[in-house]
Amino acid sequence: MRIDAALAWATQQLEGGQSPSVDAKVILSHLLNQSQTYLFTWPEKHIDDAILAQFESAIAKRQTGEPVAYIIGKRDFWTLSLETSLHTLIPRPDTEVLVEKVLDWALAKQSQIPVAEMTICDLGTGTGAIALALASELPTAKVIGVDFIEEAVALAKRNAKQNHIKNAQFLRSDWFSAVGQQQFDIIVSNPPYIEDTSPYLVEGDVRFEPKSALTSGADGLDDIRHITKLAPFHLKNGGLLAFEHGFDQGEPVRQLLSNEGFSNVLTVRDYGGNDRVTLGTLIR
Ligand code: GLN
After folding, report:
1. Which are the contacts of 15, defined by CB distance < 8 A and separation ≥ 6?
2. Which of 98, 19, 97, 27 is nearest to 57 (CA)?
3. Which end of the chain is more exposed for a tag (fewer CB within 10 A), N or C?
4. pLDDT digits (tens, 9 = 90+) for 135-162
5. Residue 120: its pLDDT value, please?
6. Is residue 74 in a domain?
7. For the whole model, what pTM was predicted?
8. Strand, coil or helix: 155
9. What CATH number corresponds to the domain at position 47?
């Protein structure tokens, strides 16, 4: 079958889904080990039978709702290609806003703390997305990513290796439990923040992702509360705490940070215009 015909067939099969045409292209370009541009450049090329069989089975999986990132085992985030697994959340574009804001802060702070000495801790690192994006942009900073799930730690380490990032370490830790007395310049986290009983959990891709990476108590704020309480013990004077959170959690998260003594607390919107990231600095 030709590439254009295969894409047209798959797009039709996925009709009614979240993004039929994009999904078809992402899956086919992955199976052909080519860029998506290749698909447009060579629409008349024939796909061999073995690949076509894999394509059909991948499209059948997508029809059951399985996320593309789990089907192909990877997802692009920032400038990186990350391996994904069922043990962790799939990196989201909105999380790049958190990376951008932390980077802005780090670069502005450079005159006081040389990047070479900057230490960063990413809590609940999952695939390692945030830790690795920051480490890649700040190659002389020292980044630690922690996760409670052993498989996530192993995955993040593989992702560091595959992306040739040497200044990020990963360890198993229940938030700060294994971090010891260490104090950082930056603590960043995209923790679980969805309400336990949210109807959003039974729709779309999120159904396939681990609850441990998604939900956090009745109001979704249990983990953010816990981290915010402990963060002052692990931040240097003047250090930054930065969270991703739910679209309706800007106000309560700002309140939590203020209550724990953080200053310059502000919320930033994501690409969809929703409150998504809140930051504050600890000035003792
Ligand atoms: N932003 C994710 C979602 O809405 C949730 C991620 C999280 O809980 N950290 O699906």
Report:
1. none
2. 27
3. C
4. 999 999 999 999 999 999 999 999 999 9
5. 98
6. no
7. 0.95
8. helix
9. 1.10.8.10
CA 41 – ligand 1 centroid, Å = 36
Our answer on whether the CB atom of 189 is closer than 6 Å to any ligand 1 atom is no
Q: Is residue 80 in a domain?
A: no
Q: Where are the alpha helices (DSSP H) in the chain?
A: 3-13, 20-32, 36-41, 49-63, 68-72, 95-109, 129-137, 150-162, 222-230, 250-259
Ligand 1 center to residue 213 CA distance, Å?
Answer: 8
Using the structure block, give the residue that is written with the tokens 């509360």.
225
CA of 244 to the centre of ligand 1 (A): 9
> Is 119 found in the same domain as 246?
yes
pLDDT tens, 226-261? Answer: 999 999 999 999 999 999 999 999 999 999 999 999
Q: Residue 157 and residue 141: Cα distance in Å, rounded?
A: 17
Question: Is 178 inside any structural domain?
Answer: yes
Looking at residue 243, which CATH number applies to its domain? 3.40.50.150
CA 15 to centroid of chain Cα atoms: 27
* Dist CA 159 CA 273 (whole Å): 30
